[in-house]
Amino acid sequence: MTPASARRLDAVVRHVMREADVPGVKRRSVGAGRSDRVRSFGVANKATGRQMSPGLYPRIGSETKAFTMTAVPQLAGQDTVGLVDPVGRHLDGVPDGDRITVRDLTGMRSGRSTTPRDDGFFEAPTSDPQRAFSPAAVDRPLHRQA
């Protein structure tokens, strides 16, 4: 990303923040062969006034569903992913990945439980925001993971 492009993107972020009344944003841009550039704008906590910072790891929750459900039909249109493909064809280690299809996931009806069986699951992401979780992590207690 050129410096001019970065300035334009920053201006768009600030404009959208004002228009949508968004208190804080963190954005990341990656260029081919270049390092990441992380920028932050506004506040992370309106009550305390705590500023957003590039090192902050905000919880994005279900936001990724919208991005994923936008990308999947595009990938299907390019014959990169088939909607009837079992997810196990594209991602190793998914419990029941041989019977859950990509289409099932786009409809958020994989047949898997939506509630992990381990209370530690809810604490783990917030205690270590950079921790990597395997697809099977929700199928076993996290305190037993190596």
TrEMBL record:
Keywords: Hydrolase. It holds the Pfam family Beta-lactamase. Residues 9-125 form the Beta-lactamase-related domain. Residues 106-146 are annotated as: Disordered. One of its GO terms (molecular function) is hydrolase activity. This is Serine hydrolase.
